[in-house]
Amino acid sequence: MGQNTKNMHYGKITGWGKYVPEKVMSNEDFAAFIDTSDEWIVQRTGIRRRHVAAETDQCSTMATEAGKRALSLAGLAPTDLDLIIVATSSPDYLTPPVSSQVQAQLGAHNVGAFTMSVACPGFVYALITAHQFIAAGSMRNILVIGVELITRMLDWEDRNTAVLFGDGAGAVVLQASDEVCGVRSFVMGSDGEGYQHIIHPSGGTACPPTTETLANREGYIKMNGREVFKFASRKMPEAVAAAVHKAGMTLDDLDLLIPHQANARIIEAAAHMAKLPSEKVFMNVHEYGNTSAASIPIAFCEAIEAGRIHRGDKLCMVAFGAGLTWASAVVQMGSDVAGLPERS
Ligand code: ACO
Fold first, then answer.
1. How would you label 97-128 residue by residue, b for 16+ Cβ within 10 Å and e otherwise?
2. Residue of the nearest CA to atom 26 in ligand 1?
């Protein structure tokens, strides 16, 4: 901070990193203790496996590991940062904010940090927020992390939710640049009328935990999957079209769609409505399930690892989730980012 940011109003993504726990649970593993099957889960969701945190993993440690990898690629020291934003719905504690634990674990001495809770679209909200600080000229280097340790919030006896989620973290570094790149346009939305469709009933102030709430299994996430499915299938293509339009682009201009990885059928429906061919849509839900706020940054990292993101590419990130909430952003990669190939 305090450095000259004149004409440096674009937040270039210069580093990225992910952390996923080693332990994997297959659909067959679930079929051993709840009434479900590999066939049902694959057909209805596309999920085959999910990564599940070890006892030694915490939300903060997973976020820190992804953040370290992103900083290393960007060639920045933790103390070079102006800000750390952590998007999550599964922090180590309700208080303190997990972003402060991450700041300390990174060794980012006295760097500002805050946590955003916007469910699955949290990372996109955080990316857009980071972009605002850079566009305003007030900051140069920002670390944005999406992380979830959601499997500790699941009712392992509830087949409606247990099979859907996984744990992990992903991070990006945004650096001020004078090149036109980074977040080119965005959409943020919320419809709180639907707040009950995905809810963790007990644990907040509306319903503090008691012996009774524990016995009623209210300390776990509940979901009305059908309603969320309908909402997501409608909202994802709308949000993509709106962000692309705001960027002054057409859908043909997009090189890759990086949708929230909740359900392959939702992604396919959104891609179909947006008339995007499958080679322009990234999908890894089969490997991770729904990692909520971590899903888009993990997918972004894997798309790079798979050689599907190039210098100068125009991406659209889009997510939906509890709230109900949604967000999309058109993101342009820089033309000189180390670690990205040229588009041939
Ligand atoms: N195995 C076998 N059967 C199951 C399972 C399971 N794991 N889960 C549900 N079923 C049953 C249901 O009980 C139901 O049985 P019934 O007809 O006897 O009542 C039947 O399968 C059909 O249920 P539907 O809800 O109609 O199944 P659907 O095809 O809609 O798939 C699913 C359910 C996968 C949950 C889907 O609705 C979905 O993906 N919804 C969106 C969820 C989502 O994306 N959430 C993201 C946001 S989460 C966040 O923000 C933290």
1. bbbbbbbebbebeebbbebbbbbbbbbbbbbb
2. 226
Report d(CA 137, CA 135) in Å as an integer. Answer: 5
pLDDT tens sequence across 67-126:
999 999 999 999 999 999 999 999 999 999 999 999 999 999 999 999 999 999 999 999
Alpha carbon 132 to its chain centroid, in Å, reads 18
pTM score over 0.85: yes
- Give the C-alpha separation, 326 to 235, whole Å: 7
- What does the buried/exposed string (b/e) look like for 144-183 if buried means 16 or more CB atoms within 10 Å of the residue's CB? bbbbbbbbebbeeeebebbbbbbbbbbbbbbbbbeeebbb
DSSP class per residue in 56-77? T--HHHHHHHHHHHHHHHHT--
**Polymer length in residues for the chain:** 344
Residue type for position 146: G
Within 10 angstroms of residue 12's Cβ, the number of other Cβ atoms is 23
SS3 content of the chain, % helix, strand, coil (to 5): 40, 25, 40
Q: Is 207 a catalytic residue?
A: no
Q: Which residue's CA is minimally distant from atom 48 of ligand 1?
A: 321
CA of 21 to the centre of ligand 1 (A): 25
